[in-house]
Design goal:
276 residues, seven-stranded parallel beta sheet, globular
């Protein structure tokens, strides 16, 4: 959860890289409203670490400073909850200083009050607003004289330099039909959670068909699966054979703010990597 109770990012990243892991992912909540009108999606009380999360980009920069190969992911970044140009500059700078290792996992978020505290974008149309946010950010990253003219985001040509070293992939964490459809239409990848999918293989097959229906190459769209169940070599091999590009694993909600759990898990799961 990237709190002060977790391993320091530079230290953790070095351990992960040396152990053979592909990437390190940090999520984002700039704040949590004390108003609890929006229910916590899994139910029950909101876990305390949500209130204590550090900035993902600064933490990933620290992780980059101690590594050379480890990819740096946001899982997930709330792109609509930051000012567009400043955020794009932060991502581009992180990508440059890390040698082109950034992956942006993003989503629309679940907390309406949090969303409305920081943006005038409409909550009820957040999927379209996300589509425009990603498109405008890509224009800043790719175009010599970027401009964007949408329903919610609009700007004339600007100078935006430096560009990222490599254009970070934009991976959408979405689970409902509308979110999955948006992912198939414009995202570089899909980031679902395995325990929410009744049949992972069938869900990926359906997703790839939707990608194809939008005239896109399904093989060009990654699937990053967040694995919440018990990790075994056979499970990861099954997910791999279903077309999953990578599996993101963590300590589980019950072990948040328990750093003593992390090192044994890294040691345990690093042994599985060679079997894949």
């Amino acid at each position: 959860m990237n709190t002060v109770n977790d391993q320091e990012p530079a230290q953790l990243a070095k351990i992960l890289e040396d152990a053979g892991f592909e990437s390190l992912w940090y999520g984002e909540h700039s704040h949590i409203p004390r108003c609890r009108t929006t229910a916590y999606p899994p139910g029950g009380e909101l876990p305390e670490p949500y209130k204590e999360m550090m900035d993902p980009y600064i933490s990933l920069m620290a992780a980059a400073s101690s590594t050379t190969r480890l990819k740096l992911g946001t899982g997930i970044a709330l792109l609509m909850e930051r000012e567009l140009f400043s955020q794009a500059k932060t991502i581009a700078t992180l990508d440059r200083l890390s040698g082109g290792r950034v992956i942006i996992g993003t989503g629309v978020g679940w907390n309406q009050e949090e969303f409305e505290n920081v943006t005038s974008l409409p909550w009820q149309r957040r999927y379209l607003a996300m589509k425009e946010t990603v498109a405008a950010t890509r224009a800043l990253f790719k175009d010599e004289a970027p401009e964007y003219h949408g329903e919610f985001i609009d700007f004339d040509p600007v100078w935006f330099e430096p560009k990222p070293l490599h254009i970070p992939k934009m991976i959408f964490g979405a689970m409902g039909p509308l979110g999955v459809r948006h992912t198939a239409q414009w995202a570089d990848g899909w980031m679902p959670v395995d325990v929410v999918l009744p049949d992972v293989g069938a869900a990926i097959k359906d997703f790839r068909k939707q990608v194809s229906d939008f005239g896109r190459d399904p093989d060009s769209v990654e699937v990053t699966l967040v694995v919440m169940g018990e990790i075994t070599p056979d499970l990861l091999k099954r997910y791999r054979d279903c077309g999953v590009t990578r599996c993101n694993i963590g300590v589980g909600m019950q072990n948040w703010n328990k750093p003593e759990i992390v090192m044994p898990m890294i040691e345990q799961y690093s042994k599985i990597i060679a079997q894949l």
